[in-house]
Amino acid sequence: MQVFGVIFIVLSVCRSNLATYGGHDLFTSLGQLNELWKNEVLVIKNMKKAIQNMDEIKASLVKYIKSHEDAQLNQEPNFDYLGQPINGYLMIRHVALGWQEVREQVFKVENETRQIFDELKDREKEKLPDEHDIHGAAYGLARLHSLYSLNSTQMIENGVIEAKIKNGIHALSEPSVMKLTAWDLDLIARQGKTQGLYNTMVDFYGVLVDKFRGEELSKEKPFETFMASKRNLTDIQQDIRHAKILHDETLIRRGSRSGARTHDLPLDPKLRKKKKFKKKTFELKDPITDEERAENHRQLEMPEVKQKADLQKELLCTGVTFRTANDTKDLFCTYAHNNSPWLRLGPMKVEIQSKEPYIAVLRELMYPHECDNITRFLGPHLDFPPGRMNPRHMINDWTMKNAWPNEAHNIHLEKMTRRVEHISGLHASSFKEESDAFMCGNYGIGGHYGTHPDFSKWNPNAFMDAKSRVNRISTVMTVLDAPIAGGATVWPFLGVSIFPEKGSAAFWFNLKSDGRPDYLTLHAACPVLLGQKWIAPFRFIYKYEKLHSTSCNVA
Fold first, then answer.
1. What is the pTM of this model?
2. To 10 degrees, what angle do helices 85-106 and 131-147 make?
3. Which domain-ending residue is among 139, 168, 187?
4. Quick check: is 521 in a domain?
5. Fe2OG dioxygenase domain location, by residue (predicted)?
6. Which of 88, 117, 139 is the last residue of a domain?
7. What's the pLDDT tens digit per position in 229-259?
8. Own/partner pairs for 324-332, CB < 8 Å, 24+ apart?
9. H or E element that contains 93
10. Residue-wise pLDDT tens digits, 264-300
11. Contacts from 301-304 at CB under 8 Å and sequence distance 24+?
12. The domain that contains 403 carries what CATH number?
């Protein structure tokens, strides 16, 4: 009976009314990984108690605990650890693979222990990662390596994330708590192939054979995982040969930055000697800056336009802009009050990033302690966005989790709204339905959001309907926590990039003065390289009945 009591304690910390094992895309949110870690710590603590009374399953539990401690999860959950993307991947791998083995070994026991194991199964009502999460996290690592040109040696040999971003940031992480195994390298390389990140594919395949042989000779436990995946050296060598051919053929036919990403030079020494590869470094020619191509950049009949749009986004993410000095000569920073008596006492720092369409940064909109309070409040409420990001959807362009509060849910959100109303002169309360609810978000491993609009399609009938919520006139996106590196918000067709700063906000108009959408305001969130990123955006709703609530100056 003592054994039954201990097992009940082990599982009591896990019970919830959420979904079954897996299917939660935990790799898309460091906030949810942190909640998983908290529960994981409690599970490990009680597993240690259970081991004393469960000799039959001791080996499986001990192995799980060892994996937990090897990954250095036996510490207070913190975002410094999770902000190192390899650490986040390793945590997911530990729980997804380790828990699968526990359930397979432990649940074999019958009769008197069946009730105990029924209780243990209850942990699957918690939000747990599964193999889908491992693949998603591996894709996140591949995306970071490819986009930011990470130092492959540092990443593979030392578990260090290192990159030099063109905005002057030299990103350098602490080593991950464990090195990537041959199984991990193979998975990341295959994700690179699937997603068209051929530079990452060949870099990881390039060291895989030596890693495989080293683990085979040393009889390391990661090698057992590799063999369980039914992959062998012959399979790997064949994949590597095909990968090199695919890389070089893609580079020759389409170039290094046209849909699929490759290195600037072929891997084949003979091909490297060709005249075409002795050109100077890559230059962006004829960037898309017109509305017509921006509006249609995703149409299937214009693939070259989409490729260039994606390229412009990627360049901006790495700190490269195609704007000239003439484009930026009239931009400025100022202390603004917008004739608000309150702001006259303490003007707000405003940095103009674009005049047409209007994009600005509101510096220090929120205090650090206010941001921290909001993120603590948001943590338990994070979930899938609606629609195309439903659970078990294919890996896509939105690796984040969201919550949708309004001002009534948190006093600091109310303060944010009030300050924005003062500086903008617009009605902004989501509680009063003057804007959408806050679409607060937390990004995951390599978390990003592809190019998208904040407006809806133009509907002239709705525009003239006094009862209609016409469109989203503008957006304010406040950064509640900023990553150490990466995570910029970029406008690919304007050449504007804003790197996140905790407490500051980006403000822009989505519509033109006649209410029509401005397709140059399509924007994207770049992958988070190091650290964590929380945002709190909300969009002003443009209602016919309030078209004249703000006066217009006519020249």
1. 0.84
2. 160
3. 139
4. yes
5. 434-542
6. 139
7. 677 888 889 999 999 999 999 999 888 887 8
8. 327/495, 330/355, 331/355
9. helix 85-106
10. 999 999 888 887 777 656 678 889 989 888 888 777 6
11. 303/259, 304/258
12. 2.60.120.620
